[in-house]
Specification:
Order of helices and strands: EEEHEEEEHEHEEHE
Number of strands: 11
Structural class: alpha+beta
Number of helices: 4
Protein backbone atom coordinates (compact mmCIF):
# COMPACT_ATOMS: atom_id res chain seq x y z
CA UNK A 1 0.00 0.00 0.00
CA UNK A 2 1.54 3.23 -1.09
CA UNK A 3 0.74 6.89 -1.38
CA UNK A 4 -2.21 7.95 0.75
CA UNK A 5 -2.92 4.43 2.02
CA UNK A 6 -3.29 4.23 5.81
CA UNK A 7 -4.07 1.59 8.43
CA UNK A 8 -5.86 2.64 11.61
CA UNK A 9 -7.60 1.13 14.61
CA UNK A 10 -10.87 2.85 15.50
CA UNK A 11 -13.60 2.15 18.07
CA UNK A 12 -16.77 0.60 16.73
CA UNK A 13 -19.59 3.07 16.19
CA UNK A 14 -21.81 0.76 18.24
CA UNK A 15 -21.01 -2.24 20.41
CA UNK A 16 -17.78 -2.96 22.24
CA UNK A 17 -15.26 -4.00 19.60
CA UNK A 18 -12.75 -2.15 17.47
CA UNK A 19 -12.50 -1.61 13.74
CA UNK A 20 -9.38 -2.32 11.73
CA UNK A 21 -9.56 0.09 8.80
CA UNK A 22 -7.31 0.28 5.75
CA UNK A 23 -7.88 3.32 3.54
CA UNK A 24 -6.26 3.10 0.12
CA UNK A 25 -6.70 6.76 -0.82
CA UNK A 26 -8.22 6.03 -4.22
CA UNK A 27 -10.51 3.46 -5.76
CA UNK A 28 -9.04 0.03 -6.51
CA UNK A 29 -10.53 -2.87 -8.42
CA UNK A 30 -11.03 -5.90 -6.21
CA UNK A 31 -12.23 -9.46 -5.94
CA UNK A 32 -13.51 -10.56 -2.54
CA UNK A 33 -15.49 -13.15 -0.60
CA UNK A 34 -16.46 -10.55 2.05
CA UNK A 35 -20.03 -10.23 3.31
CA UNK A 36 -20.03 -6.50 2.46
CA UNK A 37 -18.77 -5.56 -0.99
CA UNK A 38 -18.01 -9.14 -1.99
CA UNK A 39 -17.58 -10.33 -5.56
CA UNK A 40 -15.88 -8.41 -8.36
CA UNK A 41 -16.06 -4.71 -7.67
CA UNK A 42 -14.33 -1.64 -6.25
CA UNK A 43 -12.58 -0.85 -2.98
CA UNK A 44 -11.36 2.33 -1.33
CA UNK A 45 -11.67 1.23 2.31
CA UNK A 46 -11.31 -2.20 3.92
CA UNK A 47 -13.09 -2.80 7.24
CA UNK A 48 -12.41 -5.68 9.62
CA UNK A 49 -14.99 -5.35 12.39
CA UNK A 50 -14.41 -6.97 15.78
CA UNK A 51 -17.60 -8.39 17.28
CA UNK A 52 -18.60 -10.66 20.16
CA UNK A 53 -17.47 -14.28 19.91
CA UNK A 54 -21.08 -15.49 19.79
CA UNK A 55 -22.54 -13.11 17.27
CA UNK A 56 -26.34 -12.99 17.43
CA UNK A 57 -27.24 -10.62 14.62
CA UNK A 58 -28.67 -12.24 11.49
CA UNK A 59 -27.99 -9.24 9.24
CA UNK A 60 -24.18 -8.94 9.10
CA UNK A 61 -24.28 -7.00 5.85
CA UNK A 62 -26.50 -4.34 7.40
CA UNK A 63 -24.33 -4.30 10.52
CA UNK A 64 -21.22 -3.66 8.45
CA UNK A 65 -23.01 -0.89 6.55
CA UNK A 66 -23.85 0.75 9.88
CA UNK A 67 -20.22 0.53 10.97
CA UNK A 68 -18.92 1.97 7.69
CA UNK A 69 -20.98 5.16 7.55
CA UNK A 70 -17.94 7.28 8.43
CA UNK A 71 -15.63 5.51 5.95
CA UNK A 72 -14.82 6.45 2.38
CA UNK A 73 -16.81 4.30 -0.06
CA UNK A 74 -16.67 1.85 -1.67
CA UNK A 75 -16.12 -0.36 1.40
CA UNK A 76 -15.34 -4.07 1.63
CA UNK A 77 -16.22 -5.34 5.10
CA UNK A 78 -15.60 -8.49 7.12
CA UNK A 79 -16.45 -9.66 10.65
CA UNK A 80 -14.16 -11.21 13.24
CA UNK A 81 -14.25 -12.15 16.90
CA UNK A 82 -10.46 -11.95 17.01
CA UNK A 83 -8.80 -8.93 18.57
CA UNK A 84 -8.20 -6.78 15.51
CA UNK A 85 -5.45 -4.95 17.41
CA UNK A 86 -3.42 -8.16 16.95
CA UNK A 87 -3.44 -7.78 13.17
CA UNK A 88 -0.37 -8.74 11.19
CA UNK A 89 0.92 -7.12 8.01
CA UNK A 90 3.77 -7.68 5.60
CA UNK A 91 5.03 -5.83 2.53
CA UNK A 92 7.09 -7.43 -0.22
CA UNK A 93 7.93 -5.52 -3.37
CA UNK A 94 4.70 -4.08 -4.72
CA UNK A 95 2.37 -6.12 -2.51
CA UNK A 96 1.09 -5.78 1.03
CA UNK A 97 -0.98 -8.24 3.07
CA UNK A 98 -2.96 -7.41 6.21
CA UNK A 99 -4.46 -10.26 8.22
CA UNK A 100 -6.32 -11.06 11.40
CA UNK A 101 -5.64 -14.69 12.18
CA UNK A 102 -7.81 -16.99 14.26
CA UNK A 103 -7.04 -20.69 13.94
CA UNK A 104 -8.89 -22.24 16.86
CA UNK A 105 -10.57 -24.74 14.54
CA UNK A 106 -8.16 -25.30 11.65
CA UNK A 107 -9.37 -27.56 8.87
CA UNK A 108 -8.20 -29.28 5.72
CA UNK A 109 -10.48 -28.24 2.86
CA UNK A 110 -10.97 -31.83 1.65
CA UNK A 111 -11.12 -33.42 5.12
CA UNK A 112 -14.15 -34.79 6.92
CA UNK A 113 -17.13 -32.46 6.53
CA UNK A 114 -18.25 -30.70 9.69
CA UNK A 115 -21.60 -31.65 11.19
CA UNK A 116 -21.68 -28.19 12.79
CA UNK A 117 -19.64 -25.10 12.04
CA UNK A 118 -17.14 -24.32 14.83
CA UNK A 119 -17.96 -21.41 17.13
CA UNK A 120 -14.72 -19.59 16.34
CA UNK A 121 -11.82 -19.60 13.94
CA UNK A 122 -11.22 -17.43 10.88
CA UNK A 123 -8.48 -15.79 8.85
CA UNK A 124 -9.50 -12.43 7.35
CA UNK A 125 -7.08 -11.25 4.69
CA UNK A 126 -6.56 -8.13 2.57
CA UNK A 127 -3.99 -8.21 -0.22
CA UNK A 128 -3.14 -5.07 -2.21
CA UNK A 129 -0.86 -5.21 -5.25
CA UNK A 130 0.55 -2.46 -7.45
CA UNK A 131 -0.14 -4.14 -10.81
CA UNK A 132 -3.31 -3.26 -12.79
CA UNK A 133 -4.79 -6.75 -13.10
CA UNK A 134 -7.51 -7.85 -15.49
CA UNK A 135 -10.53 -9.77 -14.16
CA UNK A 136 -8.71 -13.04 -14.87
CA UNK A 137 -5.59 -11.61 -13.26
CA UNK A 138 -7.54 -10.84 -10.08
CA UNK A 139 -8.80 -14.42 -9.98
CA UNK A 140 -5.23 -15.64 -10.48
CA UNK A 141 -4.02 -13.34 -7.68
CA UNK A 142 -6.70 -14.60 -5.31
CA UNK A 143 -5.73 -18.19 -6.14
CA UNK A 144 -2.07 -17.41 -5.41
CA UNK A 145 -2.98 -15.72 -2.12
CA UNK A 146 -5.05 -18.70 -0.94
CA UNK A 147 -2.23 -21.09 -1.83
CA UNK A 148 0.21 -18.92 0.14
CA UNK A 149 -2.17 -18.91 3.11
CA UNK A 150 -2.16 -22.71 3.14
CA UNK A 151 1.65 -22.67 2.89
CA UNK A 152 1.78 -20.28 5.85
CA UNK A 153 -0.32 -22.60 8.03
CA UNK A 154 2.00 -25.48 7.18
CA UNK A 155 5.02 -23.33 8.00
CA UNK A 156 3.41 -22.51 11.36
CA UNK A 157 2.71 -26.26 11.88
CA UNK A 158 -1.03 -25.81 12.30
CA UNK A 159 -2.57 -29.29 12.17
CA UNK A 160 -5.99 -29.93 10.68
CA UNK A 161 -8.69 -31.16 13.05
CA UNK A 162 -10.51 -33.10 10.34
CA UNK A 163 -7.73 -34.80 8.36
CA UNK A 164 -4.13 -35.95 8.44
CA UNK A 165 -1.49 -33.27 8.08
CA UNK A 166 -1.65 -29.50 8.14
CA UNK A 167 -4.67 -27.23 7.88
CA UNK A 168 -5.40 -25.26 4.73
CA UNK A 169 -7.61 -22.70 6.49
CA UNK A 170 -10.79 -22.57 8.57
CA UNK A 171 -14.46 -23.02 7.71
CA UNK A 172 -15.13 -19.30 7.43
CA UNK A 173 -12.06 -17.54 6.02
CA UNK A 174 -12.55 -14.35 3.98
CA UNK A 175 -10.25 -12.61 1.52
CA UNK A 176 -10.04 -9.48 -0.60
CA UNK A 177 -7.47 -8.90 -3.34
CA UNK A 178 -7.21 -5.34 -4.70
CA UNK A 179 -5.26 -3.63 -7.48
CA UNK A 180 -5.17 -0.24 -9.20
CA UNK A 181 -7.41 0.29 -12.26
CA UNK A 182 -6.13 -0.23 -15.77
CA UNK A 183 -6.72 -3.96 -16.31
CA UNK A 184 -3.53 -4.63 -18.27
CA UNK A 185 -1.97 -7.59 -16.45
CA UNK A 186 -3.70 -10.96 -17.07
CA UNK A 187 -1.52 -13.12 -14.83
CA UNK A 188 -0.63 -13.16 -11.13
CA UNK A 189 0.65 -16.68 -10.53
CA UNK A 190 3.66 -17.34 -8.29
CA UNK A 191 6.15 -17.13 -11.18
CA UNK A 192 5.08 -13.58 -12.07
CA UNK A 193 6.52 -10.57 -10.25
CA UNK A 194 3.18 -9.47 -8.82
CA UNK A 195 2.22 -13.02 -7.83
CA UNK A 196 5.55 -13.77 -6.18
CA UNK A 197 5.37 -10.53 -4.18
CA UNK A 198 1.84 -11.11 -2.94
CA UNK A 199 2.54 -14.75 -2.10
CA UNK A 200 5.50 -13.86 0.12
CA UNK A 201 3.54 -11.05 1.79
CA UNK A 202 0.63 -13.38 2.57
CA UNK A 203 3.02 -16.06 3.80
CA UNK A 204 4.64 -13.73 6.30
CA UNK A 205 1.44 -12.08 7.56
CA UNK A 206 -0.51 -15.31 8.06
CA UNK A 207 2.44 -17.29 9.43
CA UNK A 208 3.25 -14.65 12.04
CA UNK A 209 -0.43 -14.41 12.98
CA UNK A 210 -0.75 -18.16 13.38
CA UNK A 211 2.41 -18.32 15.49
CA UNK A 212 1.07 -15.54 17.73
CA UNK A 213 -2.21 -17.43 18.07
CA UNK A 214 -0.31 -20.55 19.14
CA UNK A 215 1.58 -18.64 21.82
CA UNK A 216 -1.57 -16.99 23.16
CA UNK A 217 -3.42 -20.31 23.23
CA UNK A 218 -0.57 -22.04 25.05
CA UNK A 219 -0.68 -19.28 27.68
CA UNK A 220 -4.46 -19.58 27.95
CA UNK A 221 -4.13 -23.33 28.53
CA UNK A 222 -2.12 -22.69 31.66
CA UNK A 223 -4.93 -20.68 33.25
CA UNK A 224 -8.06 -22.21 31.73
CA UNK A 225 -10.38 -23.45 34.48
CA UNK A 226 -11.73 -26.94 34.08
CA UNK A 227 -9.85 -27.58 30.83
CA UNK A 228 -6.67 -29.59 30.47
CA UNK A 229 -4.55 -29.60 27.33
CA UNK A 230 -5.30 -32.69 25.29
CA UNK A 231 -8.99 -33.12 26.19
CA UNK A 232 -11.01 -34.18 23.17
CA UNK A 233 -14.41 -35.51 22.30
CA UNK A 234 -15.23 -37.65 19.30
CA UNK A 235 -18.52 -37.18 17.42
CA UNK A 236 -18.85 -39.48 14.41
CA UNK A 237 -16.15 -38.42 11.92
CA UNK A 238 -15.59 -34.97 13.48
CA UNK A 239 -13.04 -34.43 16.21
CA UNK A 240 -14.33 -31.66 18.47
CA UNK A 241 -11.46 -29.98 20.28
CA UNK A 242 -12.23 -29.03 23.88
CA UNK A 243 -9.14 -26.87 23.70
CA UNK A 244 -7.18 -25.91 20.57
CA UNK A 245 -3.92 -27.50 21.68
CA UNK A 246 -5.77 -30.82 21.81
CA UNK A 247 -4.85 -31.16 18.14
CA UNK A 248 -1.46 -32.49 19.12
CA UNK A 249 -2.98 -35.07 21.45
CA UNK A 250 -5.43 -36.21 18.78
CA UNK A 251 -2.67 -36.57 16.22
CA UNK A 252 -0.44 -38.50 18.58
CA UNK A 253 -3.28 -40.75 19.73
CA UNK A 254 -4.11 -41.71 16.15
CA UNK A 255 -0.44 -42.16 15.24
CA UNK A 256 -0.69 -39.52 12.57
CA UNK A 257 1.33 -36.73 14.14
CA UNK A 258 2.93 -34.41 11.61
CA UNK A 259 5.29 -31.86 13.13
CA UNK A 260 5.23 -30.42 16.63
CA UNK A 261 2.42 -28.05 17.56
CA UNK A 262 2.20 -26.46 20.97
CA UNK A 263 -1.17 -24.89 20.26
CA UNK A 264 -2.89 -23.56 17.17
CA UNK A 265 -5.26 -21.17 18.78
CA UNK A 266 -7.33 -18.06 18.65
CA UNK A 267 -6.41 -14.45 19.23
CA UNK A 268 -8.95 -13.75 21.98
CA UNK A 269 -11.56 -15.60 20.03
CA UNK A 270 -11.63 -15.81 16.27
CA UNK A 271 -13.29 -14.26 13.32
CA UNK A 272 -15.07 -14.61 10.04
CA UNK A 273 -15.75 -12.47 7.05
CA UNK A 274 -18.65 -14.22 5.32
CA UNK A 275 -21.93 -15.56 6.69
CA UNK A 276 -24.54 -17.78 5.12
CA UNK A 277 -27.21 -20.20 6.24
CA UNK A 278 -24.76 -23.06 6.75
CA UNK A 279 -22.66 -20.92 9.08
CA UNK A 280 -25.20 -20.75 11.88
CA UNK A 281 -25.58 -22.85 14.99
CA UNK A 282 -28.90 -24.42 15.86
CA UNK A 283 -29.07 -21.91 18.71
CA UNK A 284 -29.25 -19.08 16.18
CA UNK A 285 -25.73 -17.81 16.85
CA UNK A 286 -23.67 -17.06 13.77
CA UNK A 287 -20.31 -18.80 13.72
CA UNK A 288 -17.46 -16.29 13.76
Amino acid sequence: MTGAAALTLRPALAGVGQRLVVTLGRDHRCLSSAVLGGGLGWLRTWLDLEVARFYTRTDPGAHLLEESTDLAAPVVGMLTAAAVASYRQAEVGGARAVATVGVGHPLAAAGSRLRAVPAAGTINLLVVVDGPLTDAGLVNALQTAVEAKAQALAAARVLAANADGYATGTATDAICVACPPGARMPFAGPVTRVGADLARAVLEAVRSGAELARRETAAACETAAGSQPGEVQQHDDLVVLEHPVAQEAVAAREDRHVGVVHGAGVERGAGRGGVDAEHRHDSGHIAL
